[in-house]
Prior knowledge:
alpha/beta, five-stranded mixed β-sheet, 6 helices, 16% strand, globular
Amino acid sequence: MVIPADERHAVRMRLLVDYTSQSFGSEHPSPFGSSIYDATTGEVVAEAYDTVMRGCDPTSHAEVNAIRKATTKRQRLSLRGCILYSTCEPCPMCMSACIWAELDAVVYGASTMEDANRYWPQSSDMTPRELSDRARLALSCELIPHVERGLCQQLFLHCDQVRAKRGLQLPPNRGQSLA
């Protein structure tokens, strides 16, 4: 039996939420998680969560970390034939990395400005669609928004509760909204 794409995306996003929530037990909990699947075989190529605070590296977003792992594993720069999943709409840096990596699609749960910004204020409001529409490459990176959005929103709420309970601070300039 063939599983419809919508259900396959939902199952993978639920698995990603479970994976990402494992970071809540670490010294640096994060609600941002990403996984990359081979679109043909269905194999998980890589998964990662945000390690910005742990590594003191502002580029260590979940999507970038997953792309780094996937390209290293496959020993090639192109991830054509792969789909990236993210618990949150990719920021401009991450969407640019998705375009450069030539991913077939990006599937995400929560919205950046409407959901994540409530807990982790964002420094940009440029959407992945705006960036993708400006890409000069002939390749197309399909965007599939709001898969299991409610579950991803809960991930942000739960992470915020864990952070508050443990007295953990947000990264510099993230303690209040930048709007």
